[in-house]
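Q: Please design a sequence for this.
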């Protein structure tokens, strides 16, 4: 009888220990998620302050601010629905991309772009437009340029879209948008990429590497593209597309109070936002 009592006590102690450990894990996970969501909201609020306080003065700046507004709406929707660390970080990444559009708009208007924004996922490996180029594609003229102009009013900060790298720069049209929304590239995307970027110093991979989604490790991608025998495993093929889409003007219900950008600096002296192409 005494043995049975001892065994029961041991079982109770073990169960209590398991409950305590599990409760501790849940508490830590909840704390980490809360911290990640708070961090994302901080960046989203900063983006909102810029979107609401800047007014574009030309087509490039207005379009960049419109794109920043889309990222603001999308990030607000994402953070409201976030239940995991990955989802909270995705919302922050969306908001950071929006800040790149804000910086581009400020530069287009001849203003200081403000403090540097943290690097986006896949941005460095995507490269950037380093020379003006115009190509004929599908019956229309498509231009790429390192600087904004009336002919190239569409900015992209660089990164991966539907698993493939898109260089940072200004374009005559957002040729990546279909893949951004649909999550898949069209049949002619490789030909367009090849025509736009082959031989450009800021883009260190060719159409074969683009087609296979190579970004980081692009040289290995080139080798694989040339021989058709390479194993793509080990390259940056994550293909995580944040799926930035216009979230239907969802209000993230965050307090945008002013435009003090903390770590990103106080841009100050901004005009009210008139819609910027929304």
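A: Design:
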């Amino acid at each position: 009888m005494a043995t049975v009592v001892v065994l029961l006590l041991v079982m109770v102690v073990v169960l209590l220990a398991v409950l305590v450990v599990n409760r501790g894990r849940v508490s830590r996970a909840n704390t980490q998620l809360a911290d990640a969501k708070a961090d994302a909201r901080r960046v989203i609020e900063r983006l909102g302050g810029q979107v609401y306080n800047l007014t574009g003065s030309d087509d490039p700046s207005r379009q960049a601010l419109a794109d920043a507004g889309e990222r603001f709406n999308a990030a607000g929707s994402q953070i409201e629905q976030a239940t995991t660390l990955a989802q909270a970080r995705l919302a922050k990444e969306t908001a950071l991309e929006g800040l790149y559009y804000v910086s581009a708009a400020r530069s287009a208007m001849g203003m200081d772009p403000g403090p540097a924004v943290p690097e986006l996922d896949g941005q460095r490996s995507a490269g950037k437009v380093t020379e003006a180029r115009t190509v004929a594609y599908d019956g229309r003229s498509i231009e790429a340029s390192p600087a904004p102009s009336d002919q190239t009013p569409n900015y992209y900060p660089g990164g991966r879209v539907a698993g493939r790298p898109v260089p940072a720069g200004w374009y005559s049209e957002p040729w990546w948008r279909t893949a951004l929304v649909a999550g898949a590239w069209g049949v002619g995307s490789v030909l367009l990429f090849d025509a736009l970027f082959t031989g450009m110093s800021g883009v260190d991979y060719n159409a074969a590497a683009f087609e296979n989604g190579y970004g980081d490790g692009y040289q290995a991608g080139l080798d694989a593209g040339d021989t058709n025998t390479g194993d793509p495993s080990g390259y940056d093929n994550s293909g995580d597309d944040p799926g930035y889409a216009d979230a239907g003007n969802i209000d993230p219900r965050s307090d945008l109070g002013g435009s003090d950008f903390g770590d990103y600096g106080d841009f100050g002296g901004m005009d009210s936002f008139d819609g910027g192409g929304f």
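Q: Thanks. Anything notable?
A: The CA atoms of residues 90 and 260 lie 23 Å apart. Confidence is low (pLDDT under 50) at residues 216-278.
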